[in-house]
Amino acid sequence: MITVFGATGTIGAPLLDALRAKGANLRAVTRDPGKCAELKARGYEAVLADFDDPDALQRACEKADKVFLVTPAHADMRQWKANVIAAAQGAGVGHMVMSTGLGASPKARLTFGIWHSESQELLKQSGMDWTLIQPTYFMQNILWQADTIASGKVYLDDLGGAVSWVDARDIAEITAEALTGEGHAGKAYGLTGAEALDGEQIAALLGKVTGHNIAVQAVSAEQSRAAMEASGMDGSVAAAMVELAALAPKGYLGGIEPTIENVLAHPARRFADFLQENEAAFKG
Ligand SMILES: NC(=O)c1ccc[n+]([C@@H]2O[C@H](COP(=O)([O-])OP(=O)(O)OC[C@H]3O[C@@H](n4cnc5c(N)ncnc54)[C@H](OP(=O)(O)O)[C@@H]3O)[C@@H](O)[C@H]2O)c1
Questions:
Q1: What percentage of the chain's residues is helix, strand, coil (to nearest 5)?
Q2: pLDDT of amino acid 183
Q3: Is position 155 within any domain?
Q4: Fewer beta carbons within 10 Å, N or C terminal of the chain?
Q5: 3-class secondary-structure state, position 255
Q6: What total number of domains does the chain contain?
Q7: How crowded is the C-beta side of 115, counted as CA atoms within 13 Å?
Q8: CB under 6 Å to ligand 1: residues?
Q9: Whose CA is nearest to atom 36 of ligand 1?
């Protein structure tokens, strides 16, 4: 039995598909009764648990031999991960696959790298087998601004440099392999796409998909931070986001990791194809 936390999220949703395709026995976790009913209607075993509820977390881990854990980027993410690690230990889980972020290590100097590293070290000390999934920026992030692209014919660029975007479906496939295949314990998988693209290149790809000229509008760190806080994000998380984004103009977010091609039987998905598949969202 594999318990999947974050099962309705950007990684979790395609992970359920990937695990089902492998015939895995799984239990999806959500804190939302409506989503729980939806998962059950789709044939999944599903349970309710909040990352703040240790008893519910332990029940969600019962009889599971493996657990997948991802939390949203949130001010409480370290505590939430610690709660799930403790619950999994208590339930006798043997192997946890945890998704964190590219560059997370005890040497990290950036807030997200430090936060993720703290959770990674906790898992390593737990006595469970562990596998770390460490992705870079998700292609799916661009869907957050699909309406602006469709209505304003503008791509809002809060990075200002090339990024080796990764498709969350590739993250999910690697995770499914780590949860069901052999030889993944003790491994940390840094995940990127196969090419680095900057704002101009993304706008050009969007132009091909939509048939319109898509302009690039630079978004400053201050504007980006204010928008995230206005949407309800905690100030510490918004600050960590702009701190990370500031690496792009320095060229530090464009590195390519060969992990996807090495572990899966196909190359990393490409941004052009992702945009084409989501054509309707960008056309409005
Ligand atoms: N986006 C990026 O570009 C990027 C890049 C690198 C790393 N990351 C890292 O990836 C992680 C986010 O992954 P993701 O996008 O797959 O996650 P996500 O979609 O933001 O969230 C995953 C799920 O967590 C559940 N959740 C939220 N609060 C909860 C709570 N209190 N208790 C229980 N469940 C809760 C939600 O499910 P329910 O609503 O069903 O409960 C949600 O669907 C973060 O750690 C981030 O730092 C992101």
A1: 50, 15, 35
A2: 97
A3: no
A4: C
A5: coil
A6: 1
A7: 22
A8: 6, 8-12, 30-32, 35, 50-52, 70-73, 77, 99, 101, 112, 135, 137-138, 141
A9: 6
